[in-house]
Amino acid sequence: MSGYLLKDCAAVVTGDQVLRDVDILIDGPAISGIGAGLAAGMPAGTEVIDARGWFVYPGLVNTHHHFFQCFVRNRVELDWTKLSVIEWLDRIYPIFARLSQDCFYHSSVTALAELAKHGCTTAFDHQYCFPRKAGKGIVDRQFEAAEKIGLRFHAGRGTNTLPKSEGSTIPDEMLETTDEFLADCERLVGAYHDPSRFSMRQIALAPCQPVNCYRETFTESLALARQHGLILHTHAGEGESEVIRARHGMRTVDYLEEMGFCGPDTFYAHGWELSETELAQLSASGTGISHCPEPVYLVGAEVTPIPAMHALGVRVGLGCDGAASNDNSNLMHCVHSAYMLQCLVASTRNHPVPAPADFLGYATSGGASLLGRPDIGKLAPGMAADLFAIDSRRMDYVGTRHDPASLIARVGIGMATDLTMVNGRIVWDGEAFPGLDEAQMAAEAEAALATIDI
């Protein structure tokens, strides 16, 4: 079999326009054509899929997550609404410190499977938790999990280097030195990083956050990333700026910019506390933001200023974030949340809410930009065959079908996709993960979870 023909799609949302009643021809990992009547010229062996009634979209790109936190979801004893931040940290980090390497693997399978079911085709995970007993093979196991599910995976190799005695929130058993962090980054780059077109595996350097790392961790990460042409990432603008000011005499954006930890190869997670002046700085440097809307419900002091970012030209992607502040791995749900949150506070903002379709753009081409991937994020000949489809012939969509580009942001999608494809391979067929036993995967993950004393 050489590929697939999605025949008679009701609509294809390419990222630039909406095409009606067209086919999508897929040859190997790439899209070779979009248009009417493509069956006549398709290669021998192409499998034809009846796509009547389907809305087809570019695959979603998740730009911030913490897969390992899937094992602390929906815990009443860890409820943010009943604990102060310090109380919560004192409870959660000892749990993270007990995670085994198998726990990291099975929590990654769990997160990746949920992402795939809901249209995500590329996932970036910020893995900053390295308990000493779990060893240095955690990211390796994540690549194993991503290969199992079939998602394109960018591993953000994080670290925490500053001890509690010097002001961090990280237990000593989860600390690394800058040198051991850099050594493992070098190992991972050699073992996994593939910068080629349609690559399924890449490495990013991602010190956890400025408040929990020495300055040298950031400067040395920056040097290594630029040497290898890697993306840089960290948490910033999520309530820590005044702590950074107290320590270093400047807020976080200035602190990171002074070091050079900014630019078109760099993006930060969150950014909800940043001023318009700071956002203008990000725009000028080309630094991006991964907006994680659902954590805003729990831990954000205010709604992230997406309209200002949009108006200033800041590159924006979307992320689920981890279960410390979002109990699901459903990026499609985040598209809806992101739009609705901005509508909630629209009357208090100086800039209009971007159009609903722009929020889909953040989760597709916006995410591709943050990850430095010009080969994903849109549907067009020559682009990766990363896509998902929903059957619009359900009662859920009556009255909505005139505007497929706005559907996800305005209406929301309350179920799994009817198809998710990555690099021309079907990873979710609407009912199952082809070649995998979902019940068995869930049972294995539950067994790993049971080994932790929570």
From TrEMBL:
Pfam families: Amidohydro_1 (PF01979)
InterPro entries xref list: Amidohydro-rel (IPR006680), Metal-dep_hydrolase_composite (IPR011059), Metal_Hydrolase (IPR032466), MTA/SAH_deaminase (IPR050287)
Keyword annotations from UniProtKB, A to Z: Hydrolase
GO MF entries: hydrolase activity, acting on carbon-nitrogen (but not peptide) bonds
Domain called Amidohydrolase-related: residue spans: 55-427
Family note: Belongs to the metallo-dependent hydrolases superfamily. ATZ/TRZ family.
Protein name: Amidohydrolase family protein
Lineage start: Bacteria, Pseudomonadati, Pseudomonadota, Alphaproteobacteria, Rhodobacterales
